[in-house]
Amino acid sequence: MEAMNTQRIPIADLHCDTxxxxxxxxxxxxxxxxxxxxxxxxxxxxxxxxxxxxxSAGVPENRSFAEANELLxxxxxxxxxxxxxxxxxRTARDVQTAMASGKxxxxxxxxxxxxxxxxxxxxxxxxSRGVRCMTLTHSRHLPWASSSGEExxxxxxxxxxxxxxxxxxxxxxxxxxxSHVSEKTFWDVASVxxxxxxxxxxxxxxxxxxxxxxxxxxxxxxxxxGGVIGVNFFPGFLDSRYLRKAGxxxxxxxxxxxxIERDFDGDPARRSAEMRRLNAELRSKIGTPDATLDTVCxxxxxxxxxxxxxxxxxxxxFDGVTDLPRGISGCESLPAILARLAERGWDESRLxxxxxxxxxxxxxxxx
Length: 367
Ligand SMILES: [Zn+2]
Fold this sequence. Notes:
Helices cover 45% and strands 10% of the residues. By secondary structure, the chain is an alpha/beta fold. Strands 1, 2, 3, 4, 5 and 6 form a 6-stranded parallel beta sheet that branches. Strands 7-8 form a two-stranded parallel sheet. The structure holds zinc ion.
């Protein structure tokens, strides 16, 4: 049997934080210090990349919307500067057009519903500039949604306003993203959502039991909605040994990141440098992660086994994580994951689904 050429299968990556690097001055054409740039998107066969505008809890509430917009401006500028490589996409048709001409479809997203400043008209404004996906929370409770990153249930899941946010997102064609939310918020979303919802960058709790990951019940609920789960490549979500070695919880790491956001708010280059320092510090404490490309495949296979082959996708979290598994250096490594799944017996049709077709189905169903 001839070996399958996984290099030709287009890939959709559901989450990255590269916009923070662009705002700090990186040029997306070539950015070897980070995980994503144009050369490597081509090498990795990335046909669709969701670019999240991440609004940290360290940003003052009344600047959150402006912050999200600044980051989205960076994506627009990158697409304008490199039109032959990056095409902003709103619909599945846009994505297919981009892919057919060898470009990466760039889809704007929001990480942290804090960006809307409790105001549905701001959500509408973000949607009207092309935002197609938003995580309800990050690692802190919002007044209207509780997060998995804090003790207790905060506002107790989705408040009545939080449910209005979910309904409005569906009306404005913004995919509801449950990565980072608490268990109670998750089940509130599952009962309110009428369209498929996703976890853009989350792993399986059965393999790595941290609050940020999804239980088998949650995996089944996302599958029932018709949604997808993008497997996150952060070693701390893939393998429970990682955070144990760090002598730290994810919460502590998030708090330190938040401090950096707060202290260097308004100075993106300094913020980036401080984040790099924090990453280096963690890496020196932990050493080489135990997680490998195979650990990523284990999570992909677990999610497919529990939720079905239509629910798996990839949500790398590139440029937002302190470390990556062995064998993964950035978006150029994505075909190696497909190749490993092929070695594990995945046929081309299943690989294509996980690589991009599953997410494109959700994109189409929510546009
Ligand atoms: Zn995240």
